[in-house]
Specification:
185 residues; alpha+beta; Immunoglobulin-like; 2 domains; three-stranded antiparallel β-sheet; 10 strands; elongated
């Protein structure tokens, strides 16, 4: 029994250690970045959403989403606001020879807008937020420092592939031990 557990533990450890080693050997391109010309504007204003780090000549799909449609859902004495996002526009552009793009987006209504650019071939995504204030402002108020979002640090496909291989190896080890025990019994 101790040999069986040791063999299974060793198989699992080797499979998952291989995932980390495979990821360490890969070279990753620079992450895509995105900026807006102004993070706080007035209704009807245009902002320039630009980005870098895409494949030169790559088609980039830019979407603008309006996220200020609050709906209050009442239940058993508890109510919570649900923000429904509404896509208000999409724009196609092409990254230049350096992998950069720029799109002018006009935002009509007061509220919070999320601008997202997705590289069609690379799958790289950049997102920025723009606040449209109802009153004319200078962009220096409390909302002037809109969050530009976090970097995409998710798992890559190689890590998922090695993890799946480890799970399969572990399952094969368990099946082998089970069959061997049944034959010996």
């Amino acid at each position: 029994m101790k040999k069986t557990v040791s063999a299974l533990a060793l198989t699992g450890a080797l499979a998952f250690a291989g995932a980390g080693a495979a990821s360490a050997l890969e070279s990753y391109p620079a992450p895509a970045t995105g900026t807006v010309s102004d993070s706080v504007v007035t209704p009807g204003s245009a902002v320039v959403f630009s980005g870098a780090g895409f494949i030169p000549g790559e088609q980039v799909l830019v979407t603008a989403t309006y996220a200020n449609n609050p709906v209050v859902v009442g239940g058993t004495g508890v109510s919570s606001p649900i923000i429904l996002a509404q896509q208000i526009g999409s724009y196609n552009t092409v990254a230049d020879a350096a992998g950069n793009f720029a799109v002018e987006v006009t935002l009509a209504e007061a509220g919070t807008y999320t601008l997202t650019a997705t590289g069609v071939q690379s799958g790289k995504v950049v997102t920025n937020t723009v606040v449209v204030e109802a009153a004319a402002g200078t962009g220096t108020g409390a909302n002037a420092s809109a969050d530009a979002g976090l970097a995409d640090t998710g798992a890559d496909s190689a890590m998922m592939l090695w993890g799946a291989a480890g799970v399969l190896a572990l399952g094969a080890g368990v099946a082998t031990v089970t069959i061997a025990r049944r034959k010996n019994a």
